[in-house]
Backbone:
């Protein structure tokens, strides 16, 4: 195991996390399921008995009127509605005193007959319960007027009924466990990077300098653990050497200024030169602390923040729908779409301001500043009474979100050196994707149990936790907040670059339209209308980040290896558009699942290549205005699609219904993607410098 | 307070374990309570349904609801069959209680919500809850389809906890045991896993102190030494060399200063 490399330690710790989390969850779930089955069994027996008693009363009344038990007619019609109204019951039957089946509905005679002939059901009025193959059978004696038992009425239910009903628990447990493992991974990643790998990497830089005779720096690490202790010992060693050097230099200086023999003065000067030649010490009077921010430092706070936002992903339109009332000129659907559109618009409009704030106060402080409106927005969203309050607080949350995400991206781009920028971006994308998976999954479950409002309070608490964590990180390693202010890109000049314009309007914008219009807005409404529970909706929505996480890793490699960028963007757009057309040929929730998977695949394929394509397409603009500024503008244009998505979908609903809106959105996205696919054929490959020549 | 690496890692793992188990237990219990509640409601709904059928048989013969005197016996018999039933009431469309297993309640008015529910969805079964009781009910409909009133059955809202308190207590105890056991496993395993890192750092620190104080050489662990340890050994050597060189230089300057 390498001390300054985290991989092997992380793998071991993650295996430990799996060992500590999976077995106890499995043990407790298994024990609980057994206990729950036992707990429900008496209720099942009581239900069977009460149904049986009612049916028996009617049978005995018929027998009392003189109809022989074995010659009754219409028994199937008698039993059928009872079974239909009580789905936990599997069959109803009547047998004679020898156990021979006279009437049976809901099961096959062969399944029961042999057991019935040998069972011996008894004569107690409360009935007798036996196990028959895959069923439990409650037999109630049917008596003639004189009290003689003339047969038995049987009520059967599946032995596995309770298990089947409780099996959903395992889906919930699986979601909780998956989220816990991801959270454990994120927390361990943070603990290892922040406490071990990061400090040892800094220590390693000082080690390398000292190996070259450079004693100018000491590692800036302040933790009280073993790593901190070790690094302090190193620092003390460097400081002692520095003190010895300064003592020598002071002595030499004293000799040089006070000694009367010029020969001695010259010789001590030679000694000083020799020491300075062999070793280098800080000119500032003591070794300077050497600290280094890591892109990974901010990953856990960012993860928690995005987790908080994603918790409402699967139910925001349902929450808004419950508050929406139609206004003149605005349908209920349009009102329902507004909170998503306003949130996206707030992010788009606040992002340039957020960039300026980040430049002014530094990324860490901007991150913490963003958490204030975000947390306030989430908590107040939980308290809203009407749609207009909701819109207000979603805008506040959106402003916070813009500040935090811009600050996080700036922090990472400053922390990662140029050659490691892709890895830095991976930290951001990784945190966002895993948070999206966890937040969406657990958010639906929580909302189902504690309600929408309380789930927003949990989001607010997570944002506060994220802020506390970040404040602690800042306290230990606050970097200087000096950022070069880049020239603002000229929008018109960028739009004159046809490749850029086509990429934005026919690839980036439609992708975001599909994301917000379909996944964020239409999917929760359609699935809720299909009687899916909130946790089931969340499990469907979570397919998107799951598929995207897997696909984007592959697509990034393909894109880098074969320089196949425009093609992947075009392919992704087409897949997304075609996926949205699934409701044309299929009914129910299956086409929605297909469309979600297709969208995940689409964005997984196109997101990274699209980002990688920008520097090629805007080669001269990136040189003129800086890549960061161009990327910020790209984000802003994309968000126009995010705003438009739910509004377009909402406009389609009154005309074509929910599924029709999906298809309408699909046609629009597919048409735009098809145009891009055709246009991308003219893109060529590599940087496009002709734009510079044209504009020169 | 300074925490060791193992303590930081084990604290993180234990916190996640506790949260996971708490959420698992909460969601599991909630799902079970939901199923159990549905099953209990289903059983009581059937009881209500049988009463409804009998009352509607009487209504179809042309009797008014308040004239069906045998209904009082029917609801008392059903209550007597199940000790979980708190009470059964039959009220008319105006909300006046006509029959009640608690005979003192006859003539009183039902809560407004019980009347509202008849207006909202006539002909459909309904369930309500108040502070202490769960309520399942069904409207009573005459042959012309008019809602004449409703029959409702009340059962204890804490039915689940009362009936299964012991089982849930046992499960909670098992949960605490399992969490405690695996928390200890996490703590011990974290100490073992991070022990190697701690030992190597401690050894390097001790070597640094020894070499700087007494001289000698830092030798990377031949078994487990990695690139960092090799570089660190050079760091120690270079630091020692610098200190010795400075000391020799100081002696040299002192000598020159004294001899002159």
Residues:
């Amino acid at each position: 195991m390498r001390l300054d490399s985290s991989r092997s330690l992380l793998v071991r710790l993650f295996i430990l996390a799996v060992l500590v989390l999976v077995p106890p969850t499995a043990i407790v779930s298994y024990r609980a399921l057994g206990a729950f089955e036992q707990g429900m069994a008496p209720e099942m027996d009581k239900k069977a008995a009460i149904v049986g008693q009612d049916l028996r009363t009617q049978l005995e009344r018929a027998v009392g009127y003189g109809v022989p038990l074995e010659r009754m007619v219409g028994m199937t019609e008698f039993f059928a509605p009872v079974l239909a109204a009580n789905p936990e019951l599997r069959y109803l039957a009547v047998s004679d005193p020898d156990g021979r089946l006279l009437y049976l509905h809901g099961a096959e005679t062969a399944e029961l007959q042999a057991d019935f002939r040998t069972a011996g059901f008894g004569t107690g009025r409360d009935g007798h319960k036996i196990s028959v193959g895959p069923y439990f059978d409650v037999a109630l004696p049917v008596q003639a007027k004189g009290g003689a038992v003339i047969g038995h009425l049987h009520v059967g239910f599946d032995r596995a009924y309770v298990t089947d009903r409780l099996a959903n628990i395992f889906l919930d447990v699986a979601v909780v466990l998956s989220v816990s493992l991801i959270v454990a991974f994120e927390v361990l990643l943070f603990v290892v990077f922040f406490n071990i790998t990061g400090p040892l990497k800094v220590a390693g830089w000082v080690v390398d300098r000292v190996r070259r005779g450079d004693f100018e720096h000491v590692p800036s690490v302040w933790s009280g653990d073993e790593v901190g202790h070790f690094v302090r010992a190193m620092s003390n060693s460097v400081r002692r050497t520095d003190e010895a050097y300064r003592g020598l230099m002071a002595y030499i200086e004293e000799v040089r200024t006070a000694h009367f023999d010029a020969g001695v003065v010259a010789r001590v000067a030679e000694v000083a030169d020799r020491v300075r030649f062999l070793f280098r010490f800080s000119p500032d009077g003591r070794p300077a602390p050497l600290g280094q921010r890591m892109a990974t430092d901010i990953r856990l706070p960012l993860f928690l923040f995005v987790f908080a936002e994603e918790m409402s992903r699967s139910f925001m339109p349902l929450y808004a729908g419950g508050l929406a009332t139609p206004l003149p000129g605005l349908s209920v659907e349009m009102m329902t779409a507004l909170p998503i559109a306003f949130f996206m618009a707030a992010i788009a409009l606040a992002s340039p301001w957020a960039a300026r704030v980040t430049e002014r106060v530094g990324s860490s402080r901007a991150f913490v500043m963003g958490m204030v409106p975000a947390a306030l927005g989430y908590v107040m969203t939980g308290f809203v009474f009407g749609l207009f309050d909701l819109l207000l607080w979603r805008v506040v949350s959106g402003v916070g979100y813009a500040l935090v995400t811009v600050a996080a991206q700036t922090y990472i781009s400053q922390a990662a050196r140029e050659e490691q920028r892709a890895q830095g971006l991976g930290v951001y994308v990784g945190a966002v994707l895993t948070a999206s998976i966890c937040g969406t999954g657990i958010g639906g479950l929580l909302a189902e149990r504690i309600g929408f409002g309380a789930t927003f309070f949990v989001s607010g608490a997570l944002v506060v936790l994220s802020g506390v964590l970040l404040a602690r990180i800042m306290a230990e390693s606050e970097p200087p907040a000096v950022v070069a202010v880049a020239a603002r890109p000229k929008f018109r000049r960028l739009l004159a670059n046809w490749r850029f314009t086509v990429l934005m309007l026919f690839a980036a914008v439609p992708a975001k339209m599909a994301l917000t219009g379909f996944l964020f807005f239409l999917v929760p409404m359609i699935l809720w209308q299909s009687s899916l529970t909130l946790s089931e909706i969340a499990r469907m929505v979570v397919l998107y980040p799951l598929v995207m996480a897997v696909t984007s890793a592959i697509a990034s490699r393909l894109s880098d290896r074969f320089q196949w960028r425009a093609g992947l963007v075009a392919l992704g757009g087409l897949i997304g558009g075609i996926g949205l057309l699934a409701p044309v040929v299929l009914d129910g929730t299956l086409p929605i699942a297909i469309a979600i998977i297709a969208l995940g695949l689409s964005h997984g394929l196109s997101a990274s290549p699209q980002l990688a394509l920008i520097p090629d397409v805007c080669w001269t603009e990136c040189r003129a205005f800086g890549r960061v500024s161009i990327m910020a503008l790209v984000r802003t244009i994309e968000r126009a699609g995010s705003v438009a998505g739910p509004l377009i979908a909402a406009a389609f609903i009154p005309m074509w219904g929910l599924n029709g809106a999906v298809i309408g959105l699909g046609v629009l996205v597919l048409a735009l993607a098809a145009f891009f696919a055709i246009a991308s054929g003219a893109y060529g490959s590599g940087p496009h410098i002709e734009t510079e020549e044209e504009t020169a | 307070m300074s925490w060791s690496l193992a303590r930081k890692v084990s604290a993180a793992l234990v916190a996640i374990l506790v949260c996971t188990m708490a959420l698992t237990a909460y969601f599991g219990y909630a799902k079970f309570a939901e199923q159990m509640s549905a099953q209990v409601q289903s059983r009581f709904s059937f009881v209500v349904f049988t009463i409804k059928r009998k009352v509607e048989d009487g209504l179809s013969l042309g009797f008014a609801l308040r004239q069906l005197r045998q209904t009082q016996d029917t609801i008392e018999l059903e209550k007597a069959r199940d000790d979980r039933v708190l009470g059964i009431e039959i009220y008319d469309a105006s909300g006046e209680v006509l029959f009640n297993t608690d005979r003192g309640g006859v003539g009183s008015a039902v809560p407004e919500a019980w009347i509202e529910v008849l207006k909202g969805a006539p002909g459909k079964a309904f369930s309500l809850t108040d502070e202490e009781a769960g309520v399942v009910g069904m409207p009573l409909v005459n042959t012309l389809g008019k809602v004449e009133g409703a029959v409702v059955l009340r059962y204890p809202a804490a039915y689940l906890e009362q009936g299964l308190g012991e089982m849930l207590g046992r499960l909670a105890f098992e949960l605490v045991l399992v969490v405690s056991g695996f928390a200890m496993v996490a703590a011990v395993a974290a100490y073992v896993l991070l022990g190697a890192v701690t030992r190597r750092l401690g050894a390097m620190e001790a070597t640094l102190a020894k070499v700087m104080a007494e001289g000698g050489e830092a030798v990377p662990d031949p078994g487990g030494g990695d690139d960092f340890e090799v570089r660190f050994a050079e760091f120690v050597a270079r630091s020692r060399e610098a200190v010795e060189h400075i000391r020799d230089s100081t002696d040299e300057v002192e000598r020159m200063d004294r001899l002159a």
